[in-house]
Amino acid sequence: MGHDSGNCGCKDYSLLKANLGIATILNGNSALDGTGAVTVLRSGTAKGTIVKSVRIKAAGTNGQVTKGMIRLFISDGTDAYLYKEVNIPITPYTANTPTPLVVLETFQMVLDCDLRLPNGYALMATTQNSETFNIC
Q1: Residue 92 confidence (pLDDT)
Q2: Whole-model pTM above 0.85?
Q3: Can you tell me the distance from the alpha carbon of 32 to that of 22, in angstroms, rounded to the nearest whole number?
Q4: Which of 33, 67, 83, 109 could form a disulfide with 72 if both were Cys (CB 3.0 to 4.6 A apart)?
Q5: Domain-located, residue 82
Q6: Residue 41 contacts by C-beta under 8 Å, 6 or more apart in sequence?
Q7: What percent of the chain has pLDDT over 90?
Q8: Rounded alpha-carbon distances, angstroms, from residue 80 to 21, 32, 109, 118
Q9: For residue 128, with 0-12 CB atoms within 10 Å meaning exposed, 13-18 middle and 19 or more buried, which class applies?
Q10: Is residue 7 assigned to a domain?
C-alpha cells in the first residue's frame, strides 16, 4: 500500500516488498526481435514492477564462455523490443593456461536500469551462444 508523495503523483515504493530471483538462460538465439528461445526475467504486476538492476553471471563449466551477446528485451505481451545488448568477452580455458594454474575471474556484470514494467509487460533475456548464464 503506497501513498502519494506531494503533488508529483509518485508512490512511496519503500512499502512494497522486494522480489528477488534467478533465471537461467542457456539456449543460443541469434534473433534480434525477441522471438525464439527467450526467458522471462520479470513481469509487470497489477501495480507495476520496478527493476533496479540486472546481474548477469556465467554459470557454465568453470564459468568459461566464448565471445557473444546477452540480449534483454521488453515485451508488451504482443511484440518484443530490444532493450540492451551486453557484450560477453572470451574467458580463457584453464587447459590453455600455464602451470601452475592461475585464478581466472568468471564473467559477471551488473546493469543499473531503473526500468518500470507496467502490468502486462515483461523483461526477457536471450544468449547468442548456447552457454549458461544466471540472471537476477
Answers
A1: 62
A2: no
A3: 23
A4: 83
A5: yes
A6: 23, 51, 54, 72, 122, 123, 124, 125, 135
A7: 24
A8: 22, 9, 23, 14
A9: middle
A10: no
Calculate ∠ Cα 63-38-110, nearest 5°: 45
The sheet that has 133-135: what strands, in order across it?
23-25, 133-135, 49-58, 108-117
C-alpha to C-alpha distance for 35 and 49, rounded to whole angstroms:
23
Number of domains comprising the chain: 1
Q: What is the DSSP letter of 4?
A: B
Cβ–Cβ under 8 Å, residues 85 and 69: yes
87 assigned to some structural domain: yes
> What tens digit of pLDDT does each residue of 37-65 get?
999 999 888 888 888 889 988 887 666 67
CB 29 within 8 A of CB 79: no
Give me the DSSP letters along 60-99: SGGG---SEEEEEEEE-SS-EEEEEEEEE-----GGGSPS
How confident is the model over 91-125, as pLDDT tens digits?
666 566 666 666 666 778 888 988 888 999 999 99
What is the signed CA dihedral for 77, 25, 85, 19, rounded to 10 degrees? 60
